[in-house]
Amino acid sequence: MSQTLILLRKSILVFSRSRVAISLTFLVPIAIIYVFGHVFGLYKKSDTGPTGIPLAVVNASAIPAAEKLVDALKAEKTFRIIDSVKNKDGSTRPLTESDARRGMNDDDYRFALILPPDLLPADSFGIRLKFLTNPRNEIESQTVNGMVQKTIFSHVPELLGESMRGAMSRYIGAPALDGFNGEMANVYAKYFNVDRDKMLKRLNSADYGLGALSAPGGQTGEDQEPAKARKAAGSTDVFSRIVKIDTEQVAGKELANPMAARTVGGYAVMFLLFAVSNSAATLFEEKNTGIFVRLLSAPVRPAHIIWARFLFGMILGIVQIAVLFLAGHFMFNLDIFSHAAALLAVGVAAAAACSAFGLLIAAVSPNSAAASGVATFVVITMSAVGGAWFPVSLMPYYMQHISKLTIVYWSVEGFSDVLWAGHTLVQVLPKIGILVGISAAVMAVSVACFRRGTLFE
To answer: Distance of CA 286 to CAs 179, 282, 296, 305, 363, Å?
Structure first.
């Protein structure tokens, strides 16, 4: 028993003296939990739902209630409303449907709500809307659709009042309707002791008390809960019959497996980062086994070793991406051959950036164990923040900006542009250029760190 306790004490001492082991056991999990808290918005004291999702809104209707609906969408924290566009001279003008479609094709936003001129059809009672979508992720699509419909339905009563007034005007004529409203205002003033002019103004503005459909006012005590239950059960069904939302998917309609097109790229980049990081960490093993001593005694400089490792990481990354996408093709019917050139270009740029990242991890780490720990932490963090696991748009607004600083974000966006939106090589060149720029910047920092370090001594 004493021997067991002695060996136990030895293990505890060895563990307590290893900074890497302590970091991997305690500090790294705490740091990851902290980062994920920001990703999911857990530090907010109030609602933790998504914020700042870009939504283009085109108001082609002249009805005052339509402007109120736009204002309600602007007040909804889930959305960042885009309802104007800049002219070449710097001035702005209201967004049009053609502008919205162009913006969706350019990936400025993925959802657009159109309030057409016939928002209130002249030949029927109800409301007509158009919703354009480019849903690269099912979670994001369902969230946006739900929030848009919630905002619309909460303001349907005002629009219904306008529609009802138009229907009554068509049936009995505008002069007769004005006369009817005047008589109704007189009745209210006479029997209910209300101001006639205010009541006439409400009637002429199509305020027929339909707002009660969206606010359970006037109910007290035991009447409130049953009313809420009835509203929850039936209001959506009633409104869905009188509110027609024509949904049009702008991209991805022809894909055999849309979900695969949206997710395979993210996981491919994550595993690529792990592969090249582990490969770069083998530099420490080569030093410990004396390989560097033999190489540097020959006409070989440290720069040759660094760049050879960078090229090896690129080749490894390209092959891994090709294998993963081929697996996606055979397992999920992912169409990769129709976009082979653009997909290869994005893959090469992503592999270069990931290879440079792996060398940076090796350059700033004191040993192989530390490099492995740092790589695990950074790769998991970048994958979560960069959108490899779930949509960036569902994160807090400030995290959406931080995500654009990661290799994962631009790689996932590039693969999505090719596989989901079917963009050509020319169209994805901006994202390829960003990945190449990241690769060059990270390699410059890596080389500088290697020069100051002791890896090649």
So the answer is: 95, 6, 12, 11, 14
The C-alpha angle with vertex 427 and arms to 425 and 428, in degrees rounded to 5, equals: 70
Question: Given the structure tokens 């994920």, which residue do they identify?
Answer: 36
Report CA-CA distances (Å) from 404 to 186, 319, 383, 387: 62, 26, 12, 10
Say if residues 432 and 346 touch (Cβ distance below 8 Å). yes
User: Is 82 within 8 Å of 57 (Cβ atoms)?
Assistant: yes
Query: Considering only CA atoms, which of 355, 362, 357, 334 is closest in space to residue 418?
Result: 334
How wide is the angle at C-alpha 225 spanned by C-alphas 49 and 143, nearest 5°?
Answer: 20
Alpha-carbon span 59 to 7, nearest angstrom: 75
- Residues linked to residue 53 through DSSP beta bridges, in sequence order: 79
pLDDT tens-digit profile of 23-39? Answer: 667 676 777 677 666 66
Which secondary structure element, helix H or strand E, spans residue 93, and what is its range?
strand 92-94
Report in angstroms the alpha-carbon separations of 403 from 35, 304, 393.
Answer: 12, 33, 10
Place of tokens 């992503």: 350
Identify the burial level of 17 via C-beta atoms within 10 angstroms of its C-beta, where 0-12 means exposed, 13-18 middle and 19 or more buried.
Answer: exposed
**Residue the block writes with tokens 């306008």:** 162
pLDDT at 40: 61
Query: What was the pLDDT predicted at 410?
Result: 92
Q: What is the pTM of this model?
A: 0.69
Report the alpha-carbon distance of residue 113 to residue 132 in Å, rounded: 6
Work out the number of other CB atoms within 10 angstroms of the CB of residue 446.
24
On whether the CB atoms of residues 252 and 423 are closer than 8 A, the answer is: no
Q: Give the distance, in angstroms, between the CA of residue 57 and the centroid of all CA atoms in the same chain.
A: 18
Measured CA to CA, the distance from residue 345 to residue 73 in angstroms comes to 39
Cβ-based neighbours of 174, under 8 Å, separated by 6 or more = none
Helix (H/G/I), strand (E/B), else coil: 130: strand
Domain extents in the chain: 39-155+214-251, 258-452
CATH class held by domain 39-155+214-251: alpha beta
Residue 200: CB atoms within 10 A of its CB come to 18
Report which DSSP code applies to 307: H
| Residue 11 binned pLDDT confidence (cut-offs 50, 70, 90) | confident
- Distance separating alpha carbons of residues 423 and 413, to the nearest angstrom: 11
CA dihedral 350, 352, 355, 356 (to 10 degrees): -110
